[in-house]
Amino acid sequence: MDSPNEVIETQTPSMDEPWIAVARSAAFALAGYSLVFQVLAGFAAPVTVIGLVFLGLGIAIRSGRRKLAFTSGLLALLLVVGSAAPLADALTDLASLEAFALNLFLTLVCLVAFAAGIGSIRRSTGRLLRPAVWASASLFLVGLVVSVIVAAGVESAEPMAGDARVVAEALAFEPEVLVVSAGSGLWLENRDGVRHTFTVEGTAIELNVPGHSSGRIELDLEPGTYRVICDVPGHGAMSVDLTIKEAQL
Ligand SMILES: [Cu+2]
User: Fold this and answer.
1) What's the CATH code, domain 164-245?
2) CA angle, corner 68, sides to 31 and 70, nearest 5?
3) CA of 43 relative to ligand 1 center, distance in Å
4) 198 C-alpha to ligand 1 centroid (Å)
5) How far is the CA of 146 from the centre of ligand 1 (A)?
6) Furthest-apart CA pair in the chain: how many Å?
7) Domain boundaries defined on the chain
8) Tell me, what DSSP letter sits at residue 241?
9) What sign does the CA torsion over 25, 30, 31, 33 have?
10) Distance between CA 10 and CA 32 in Å, rounded?
């Protein structure tokens, strides 16, 4: 009779092992990204769920579990496709270092996860593994250096006397109702890592403020009421009801 010890399988390393190892690492990286990002940015349920799904996949992906590695890669690709607009915006805004670095990391890890999923399911050799990982790491470092330089060149504006002051934090404007005299200026302090705009709908007034900086603009508007939005993709919840009243003489 067989003893339980003899049932243990001996895993022989196969050619697709490197891809599975990368798929597992990528899943853990995406879990860490989502869960840490959730804490940093104060986002709730969706990001946490995504983080926990990748954490589960990272734990479950093992030698021979090619379908799980592929599933993880496919989810990573869907994550990139589903958030293409905000990703594209962050990746083209080198002046906002924090958002640029986080989104570049996310994009590259997702693409590596997808490549690892394909490599696992096709039982590919690990021939392209090193170039793929090196290319991603190099791209990240180069992007990071360029963004550091661009962000360092951003000059924050100081508020002037009589300016209306608005803070953008956690993807919200504060205050959300603003009454100012005609001819006033507006100073916006952006406490988030991502850029925000102060866009007065129906007018040419738009202030773009990179992450962790401040900007100033003259509110050259006729008395009346206006709706202000942030036109960055995914920031649809940001708005201000702006009222311009006659200047007091
Ligand atoms: Cu915004």
Assistant:
1) 2.60.40.420
2) 90
3) 14
4) 8
5) 23
6) 102
7) 8-152, 164-245
8) E
9) positive
10) 31
CA of 28 from ligand 1 middle (Å) equals 29
Q: How far apart are CA 246 and CA 108, in angstroms?
A: 52
Evaluate if pTM is beyond 0.70: yes
| Token pair recorded at residue 98 | 């924090």
> Ligand 1 centre and the CA of 76: distance in Å?
25
| Each residue's pLDDT expressed in tens, for the chain with a length of 249 residues | 444 444 444 444 454 588 999 999 999 999 998 888 776 666 666 778 899 999 999 999 988 889 999 999 999 999 999 999 999 999 999 999 999 999 999 999 999 999 999 999 888 777 888 888 899 999 999 999 999 999 999 999 999 998 999 999 989 999 999 999 998 999 999 999 999 999 999 999 999 999 999 999 999 999 999 999 999 999 999 999 999 998 766
